[in-house]
Amino acid sequence: MNELFKALSDENRRKILDLLRNGDLTAGEIANHFEISKPGISQHLSVLKNAELVYAFKKGQYVYYSLNSTVFQDVMKWVIQFNSKGENE
Question: Would you indicate the residue range of the signal peptide (predicted)?
Fold first, then answer.
């Protein structure tokens, strides 16, 4: 869970997640939306992959990144549980 919150704490990573909501993208396509070096984008993608927020798959000669919506569903369940426990105390 700590890696998840670490990943979400950065504005650039949140923007990457927002971009991926519209569909799969390569690292180069993602980089086009930022004024960050490609190695910097790669580092952000690595953090997101470690938190299991995105996954990568190879299609032809390119690696595509895709949003892992299952993790978001799990986080929302956790937040709802956490919130409902606080209301019951």
Answer: none
pTM metric for this prediction: 0.83
DSSP H or E segment with residue 26: strand 25-26
- Counting as low any pLDDT under 50, the low residues of the chain are none
The DSSP string of 40-80 is HHHHHHHHHHHTTSEEEEEETTEEEEEE-HHHHHHHHHHHH
54-59/25-26 β-pairing: unpaired
CA of residue 41 relative to chain centroid, distance: 12
The answer to whether residues 47 and 13 touch, using CB atoms and an 8 Å cutoff, is yes
In the chain, helix, strand, coil percent, each to 5?
60, 15, 20
